[in-house]
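Each field is set out underneath.
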Amino acid sequence: MAIFGDAYNSLYLFPVQYCEEDCVMLKTRTLGRTGLEVTQLGYGSMGIRGPKTWGKRVASEEDSEKILNAVLDAGINFIDTAPDYGISEERIGRYLSSRRGEFILASKCGCDYTLGEDEINIRHTWKKDVIKRNLEETLFRTQSEFLDLLQFHGGDAETLQREGLIELLEDFRSQGLIRFFGVSSSLPNLPGLIELGVFDTFQIPHSCLAPEHHDWITKAAETGAGIIIRGGIAHGGPDAEIQRPNLNDVWTNAKLDELLTENMTRAEMILRYTLSHPHCDTTIVGTCNPEHLKENVAAASQGALSAELYQEIQTRVSSVINENEFL
């Protein structure tokens, strides 16, 4: 966009990537109408949210600095965050501001959280003052002059239109505060948001263990929008540190272990299944574990599954889900 001019072009170093000797080059795709070239494996920064938020895993400052730099060293060039994610934005600014030209930064708005005694109380409010405050604070925390992508953190089409919030983000873009805007959504609000035809990107949940948005991803992509998939590794699947019985049941009942090829882990198959969706531009995977990061990068570098394996997984999972719905 012309408003960013030479300052933006001189800031970014794409497509050149720093890469250690043992690192592999990740595949890239164009993020819809944005024209941005993103690595198909992105990084979700919720895991570096810090203390007094929620969940069992809390990353230290040292671990956060290490993992953020390791993400860029691995060649990943898309980082997703949000004001809701504790001190995630602040840590990105603290540890990556000197490398800002190496990655595309996406954050969110509509985040009207309050700080409780022991955790953050998350709520979303669709008012202009909240959206403005989110952007202002995000730019400050991340030590950025602008965001590459600002996404509504939920919301429905009627409310966003009624409150004039789409026009607000268009105004942010005209001022050069953001380059593009999108929405992070799911059913039942997703269809109405797609119909608006205004979003540069959609962030949508999807994996082989939770495939209900498969066709809606295609419909969103058909508007020309870029597709960011979250939950694309199904929280680690059956081998995850934090177990999710509903997802494990799908894996077990679909007998997906039978489909693992030699040396393929469960997490690799889940991730590569997500990358096999024809409209997956990038999938954001969060981790604070350097070894898990290496495994994710190695898996993503293998690219999509074979068409036969992809179809067989779809068939088995669909059968299990349809059977459960019938029961």
Observations:
- The first strand starts at residue 28 and ends at 30.
